[in-house]
Structure formats: C-alpha cells, structure tokens
Amino acid sequence: MTVHLVFDLLAAALGMLATLAVYRWRLGGTADAALERAGAGYALALVAGAALGGYAAGTLNLMLSGVPGFGRSVLGALAGAILAVELYKRARGIRGSTGVVFVAGFATSIAVGRIGCYLSGLGDNTHGLPTTLPWGQDFGDGVARHPVQLYESAAMALFLALALAGFARRAPAFMANGFYLCVGFYAAQRFLWEFLKPYATIAGPLNLFHLIALCLMGYAAVMIARSRHAAA
User: Fold this and answer.
1) Residue 133 lies in a domain
2) How far apart, in whole angstroms, are the C-alpha atoms of residue 26 and residue 164?
3) DSSP state, residue 130
4) pLDDT in tens, 175-206
C-alpha cells in the first residue's frame, strides 16, 4: 500500500469523523431543511459529480502539461460536485444551502490528504516550482522546490480552526454561508499556490486550475450575496 493511498484513506476517515462530530455537536436538530428534503438523489449527484469532475480536471491538466496517464483533482471534484448538486437542487425545486454540514470534513480531508501528496514526491505531480527559499524541499532529484502541498494543508487547517470557532458560536452568518465561505477560501488559496506549480498555462499566466478556482470564487461570492439579499 503506497503512502499516498494510506493518507487518502486516513483523510477520508478523518473527514467523515469530523463531519459526524460537528453535526452532533452543533448541527443536529438545526440542519437546514433543504438538506433533509434532498433525498438519495442528492448523494448520488454529489458522488457522481465529484468523481467526474475530479478525474476530468486532473487528467486534462496532465494532458496540457504533457504528462501521460490519468489524474485526479480535488479542485475539479469540488467543482463537479457543486455543479451536479446545484442542477439537482434546481430540478427538485430545493432552495437554500445544503453544504454547511460538509465544511469541517472537507477542510480536514484536505489538510490531511495533502500531507500524503507531499510524502509521495515527484510522482504525485503536485510539487511546486524550484525555489531558493530555506524551506524548499528536495523530492529526490537534487532540486529544492516549493512544498505547495504543505502550503495547502496549512491553509485548510487554518480554515478548519476558524470554521470550528464559527460552529462553536453558531454565528448566524457562518451557519448560513459556511459552505460558500469554505469554497471561496479553498479556491482562493489554490489560486495563489497554482502560480508556484509547473503546470501548463492556457490563458496568460493562468493554468486550468486557476480558471476553475476563479469560477468557484465567483460562485461563492454570488451565493453569499444571494443569501444576504434573502435575509434582508
């Protein structure tokens, strides 16, 4: 069993535990009615969208970068899941956010899973560009590179801490927009780290993941604005 697979499984397990723990701690009995009405089709849309988006974005990015094989992308999986769920909700006439229950689990899984990417070295294709900074990491070829995997892990660990504080206070703004804040934060930090990666660019200095991240940031901003308008 590879290091990456071990951390993938660990990330999934801890993400599920975080989701259940936060639900029982702060969301049980208060979860949005929209999620309760969603039904089994919601879960199917979520899983299918994540799988299709993750493999499509990851593989396309490798193709653009001249790397053979299939790839996976958390950013693509998030975008695919959101698109599939929003289409499902529209078809079912479901309004309101249904994602706050997943916030802690998502942040936990990224914070843990990226450590596996880091430990997997060059073969994972998630390493950064060469750097002369003192914390540059040699992944086995004698070149010090940005450990962008750890940058992302630390960023999402920080968000998790902020999210837990929001859950603890049951802050109305966070409870209403926690998922959109999570999406926006994740996309924003990914947008920054992508400038430190050796992926092929397709629009000026921007690579495929830059563009996906921009779309997710726009989605988060629009949904937060709609939530505020509805509450006014």
Assistant:
1) no
2) 10
3) B
4) 989 999 999 999 999 999 999 999 999 999 99
3-state secondary structure of 182: helix
Bridge partners for 145 per DSSP? 130, 137
Q: Give every CB contact of residue 41 below 8 A, 6+ residues apart in sequence.
A: 88, 92
Any domain includes 41? yes
Torsion of CA 167, 172, 175, 177, to 10 degrees: -130
Record the tokens describing residue 47, joined without a space.
Answer: 């899983």
Q: How many domains are contained in the chain?
A: 1
Cα dihedral: 202, 206, 210, 216 (round 10): -90
Determine the length of the chain: 232
Please, what is the average pLDDT of the chain?
92
- Hey, what amino acid is at 131? T
**Which residues, listed in sequence order, are joined to residue 137 by a DSSP beta bridge?**
145
Over the stretch 113-170, which tens digit does the pLDDT of each residue have?
999 999 998 888 899 999 999 999 999 999 999 999 999 999 999 999 999 999 999 8
Residue 132 included in any domain: no
What ranges in the chain are assigned the alpha helix state H? 3-22, 33-38, 40-64, 74-92, 103-120, 148-169, 172-193, 208-231
Residue 125 has phi, psi (to 5 degrees) of 60, 30
Its domain, for residue 78, covers 3-123+153-231
Give yes or no for a contact between 195 and 159, defined as CB atoms under 8 angstroms apart.
no
To which residue do tokens 């926006």 refer? 184
Angle between helices 148-169 and 172-193 (to 10 degrees): 170
Strands (E), 74-205: 137-138, 144-145, 201-203
